[in-house]
Amino acid sequence: MSESFGRHVRALRTRHALSLRGLADLARITPGYLSKIENGRLPSVDMARTLDVALGANGSLLAVLTVDQLPRPAQLPLAMSGFVGREPEIRDLTAALERPTDSRVPLIIAVDGPPGAGKTTLALHFAHKAIPRFPDGQLYADLRGHSPHDRPARPDEVLADLLRSLGVPAAGTADVEQLAALYRSALAERRMLIVLDNAADFAQIEPLLPGTARCAVIITSRERLSGLTLRASPHRLTLGPMSEDESLALLTTVLGRERADREPAALASLAARCGRLPLALRVAAERAVTTPDYDLRDLVTELDSERLDVLGVEDADVRTIFSWSLRRLDPDAARLFPLLGLHPGPQISGRAVAAFAGMPHTFARRATARLTHAHLLRAVGRDRYTFHDLIRDYAAELADREVTDTPAAVYRLASWYLHSATAATHVLAPFRFDPMAKDELPRGVHPLGWTADDAGALDALRWCDAELPNFVPIIQLAMDHGHYKLAWQLPVVLWTYLLQRRPWTVWIRSHELARQAAQHLGDRAAEGWVVTNLAEGYRRMGELAMANRLYAEARRLRSDVDDRYGLAWALAGSAFLAADLRDDRRAQEFADRATQIFVQYKDIQGQALCLMTRGDVLRLRGDLDGGLALCGLALGMMADIASLEGQVHVLRKMVEIHLLRKDLPHALVLLDDTVLTSKELRDRWAEAEALTRRGDVLTELGRRDDARASWQQALALYDELDDTTGSRSVRELLAGVLPATAAHPGNS
Fold this sequence. Notes:
64% of the residues lie in helices and 5% in strands. By secondary structure, it is mainly α.
């Protein structure tokens, strides 16, 4: 696909009867570089724009470049080796893919059936065969539809993950409809295959369906998903047990022809005892492979002696078959397996496994490797693991009976998360004062740590990104087992990460749980921290009425328990909110009170933010020079403590003041600084806001081409995030719908 830009250039050059040198002279580049572009090298956006103008392409080359630079995900998990049978089903699915469909809707294939029937195996096998039909890539999502110890994946979480895979890493919004609209837009011009595995119900998958006929969707579920018929005309395939011949073929493939032929009657009995379910057949056959001196009839006898009850499927007991694998595990792996059934998140890392089990990481690594080898655990990345849903169910059932120290194990796990998140915060924001008293780590629990440099900060940020889907489930798990202090402290410790990434769903939900935990403890000081963070989350989302109510609660809570440092932050946030509401009197009052406390605690960042707010108050009162002077002092204080986050806040306020003074050149210089500082901070949201504002200023200065380039960069960032309002506004600017001077103020 990356050669399409070069092909377009060559076609346009030929149409205009231009030689390679002739076009190179027009574009003021060397013929050699132009030749490389025509043969697949992607140019910069500026060079693409130059070629577009030289060839009179009216923007088409820029559009081609954008398509060429889009990620092409290839997310399909590895297909099952030794796949046998299901030939009628494969023919049926192939015919559905080749059949003409309504050009207005995507092809939807729904594969349903009982657990263990091999729905996922068939879907992945077929999806891999269909890859050539979908040149723009494949997406995969495990929706976790059926697991008693883990809630199904929420559509907003899945959409955020899919958008990140499409090059649109949505930092967060609680609005599923906005995420779904962004997702449909990202797929609009792509031909992609999407596999939605293990769906719970139609409501879960409806937002995940694309809006273009260029895409195809394969859905697997234990349910029939009858609501699909209301949305589309899905091609349905109900997958039941395999035929007798297919079952024997599968067993023979795993066992080998010689051993299968040795006991044909026992082979047929084994297939029958497994209910001809592919999962049970494969596990039983692998059990036989690992015990070559064990006759097949012995396995049949063992099955007959056990209770037959496999998830509602008559005459088969997958639990018994799973137990065969467990009996051959070493003690560490055998102890670990049921414990992992308690983990509520979609994945778990090897380091978290070690903390959960209270064993050294090297032991945990060997145990997880053993479980993976026995097909009881699945590796999904470097040192990260997940369960097949049936095996998770079985592990969870065992945990209820066999794990005797569940509260202690959960305490170790939640403590590991708390102290690892604390270490991440220390490298992401070393200037931030942490007044929370944390309990000592349990013996044998070793949290992660990172170096205090840019590389360490990036690694810490990546760890937080990887663990984001686990944070809320871990908080809930801690509460379920009475560890309320850990439950309220973890969201508060994540404050710096939440500020940088703004995953609103996790921000709000984690703090709602944290407030319940604090209230259960009767810890009003803890509740004050949590409510303050909740208030700021709502303020940054623009829900100012809710933020106002929560900030009032936070001030009251912190005053009641004489938490002066916490009160300072509640006052500072209240000052930000008052300025947002243009209430200069209350903003001044709150900022002055907060400053007095920050001085007492020698908190430079808090003092600088309050100084910035006082400058904002002067701006509201018309004293622009005074406001600019105070903000300049605040900027210097932020630089002294190396707070990139604080510098971005102050720079944006200073830009607004310069614009009110009609001092466009100085505003542009500060906007350039804001873009660079935001990029260094890795805050794409702040960078997008600064680029948008920069485009406005460039337009007022008459530099319309530079303005368009700035807006295009902003649009790319907004499309990576969840800010559909920002994307829409910038698109309108680019289309000339809005005046070039339209304002895009940012939050403090």
